[in-house]
Amino acid sequence: MPRSAISYAITDRRQYGTGWPEQRSGLIAQAERLEAEGVDYLQLREKDLPVQDLIGLAREILSALRSSGSGTRLLVNARADVAIAAGADGVHLPSGEDQLTPAQVRRLFAAAGCGRPIVSVSGHTLLDVDRASGRMEDDNRADLILFGPVFEKVVDGRLVVPGVGLDALRAACGLAGETPILALGGITAANRATTIAVGAAGIAAIRLFR
Question: Can you give the pTM of this predicted structure?
Fold first, then answer.
């Protein structure tokens, strides 16, 4: 993958055991490792954690990242309030009509006296990309669009999640204009270069960065 390609890691504490203390330690160690590897973004996706645990974890990860002057930016999945309380760099917005918009997230950060947040959004269709790239509403333009799943997920020979494919990714990249598209879903060391070749600005993944 080209050095200029964006790398965006997503957490999953379940890969670090079943107990909260070991999961917490695993996530902090993962953040330190990803920072050393030069990963650009880390999305804290532990959406089922109690709010206070999530805020505390975000603060500890930020402390680990910033103690070394890291350029890795921490985004909190869905929770602008948690991101603001923890001092995170921004928010990731899943798809869905019940989610905040990028404009609303920015207003919340401004009202709290925080700087301009980085806002990434999930996109599964070209309509999602059209909206998130600001072609329909300029003030709702996202900073990054995670598009996918690009590749299918197969478990024990059974199709679990179908992929949209490289042609759809190419179309999304063309539609997004200047808004970076990150390929998401089934990304591996073997196939990530093909996503860059069709126009993606980088990749987003859970398992690739574990």
Answer: 0.94
